[in-house]
Design brief:
Blueprint lengths: L37 H14 L3 E16 L2 E4 L4 E12 L2 E10 L7 E6 L8 E6 L4 E4 L7 H4 L19 E15 L2 E14 L1 H4 L6 E7 L5 E7 L5 E13 L2 E11 L4 E12 L11 H4 L1 H12 L4
Parallel strand pairs: 8-12
Antiparallel strand pairs: 1-2, 1-3, 1-14, 3-4, 4-5, 5-6, 6-7, 8-9, 9-10, 10-11, 11-12, 12-13, 13-14
Length: about 300
Amino acid sequence: MGSVFRLKHLAFAYAAALTATIALLAGTGEVRANAVTPRQVAEKFDHVLRKSHKTVVTKFRLSTCRYAAAGEGVRCAEKPRVSVLENVLKFYGDDIRSAAIVLEPARDKGIGTLNYEYYDVRKDNAAWIYLSALGKVKRIISNSESDDSGSFFGSEFYIEDLDYRKLNDYSYKLLREENVRVHEKAGPTNRPAWVLEWTPTAERARKSKYGRVVTWIDRERHILLREQYFNHDGQLFKERTIRSLELIDKHWMPRQIMMNNLQTKRVSTIDRELIVFDRDVQDEFLTQRVLTDQAFRERHLGELRKAWK
């Protein structure tokens, strides 16, 4: 059935409203001593990701293509490769369990993954993939040296781009504060943002494709607005942009996420077509049975789909 793509759950929880203030010395971009620390900014961001809801269920479309410049934007220079998936995610304190199932294209239908993420940096995450054509479940071993194993379903999103970062895997630097242009559902707007640099620890760097990441975090809502990724040579090579940011069930969520690879000139887009938060997801659903038992899976998903927005 062709190459087996590595899947990883989407990190869907960019939501909830908190408040904070940070003061800058006029015209300098330097943070005053009584402002929040870089670690505190990361903690506020992480709190919204992990604590604002218990579960999230989505249906999303993933498309990837080579692109060409088109005015101030880009356009596909070839027919995009498109996949449609359903994803169910549940928090267990700071730990996460999730399952993703491929709906389209027909040749990949039924391929699924089960993922257990652990907040403790001493514990490795666990992931399994089910190959519907073979009827087998295999453990996924991610190899940071392999572009194929690092790619999310053959896209420009790497598996680690969709993980929830573990705070103790990084050191932090608050670079500056600035306004950033954000495309919300109601229209474009400017939002005040912290610009936070994440530098992986030596242990994390051995497993990551990135030497550092720079994140624009909304100062008031503490959600992701933009992100840049630098390789281990310090070169900028990927950019994440969010669009159609929408308040859904009191959670801020981008309906569309774009990942632009500046080196390969390829762009991948995730479009969240349907979504719902805080539905009852039974623990038994997030076991290997969800991968192998279609009737069991559909029975549970049928109830969850009723609440989609």
